[in-house]
Amino acid sequence: MAKLDTSYMGLKLDNPLIVGSSGITSTLEVVKRCEDAGAGAVVLRSVFEDEVRREYESAVRAHMRAGHMEAFTYQQPDLINLKGGQQYLELVNEATSALAIPVIASINCFAARSWGQYARDLEKAGAKAIEVNLHEFTASAVRSAENVEGTYSEAVSAVVRNTKVPVAAKLPPYFTNVAQMAFQMELDGAAGVVMFNRPFLPDFDIESIELKGGVSLSQPGDYKTTLRWVSLLSSRLGLDICASGGIHDGQAIIKQILAGARAVQVVSALYRMDLARIQEMLRTVAEWMDRHEFDTLADFRGKLAQPKTDLPHLLEKTQYSRLYMGL
Ligand SMILES: Cc1cc2nc3c(=O)[nH]c(=O)nc-3n(C[C@H](O)[C@H](O)[C@H](O)COP(=O)(O)O)c2cc1C
Question: Which of 9, 60, 67, 196 has the fewest CB atoms found within 10 Å of its own CB?
Answer without folding.
Answer: 67
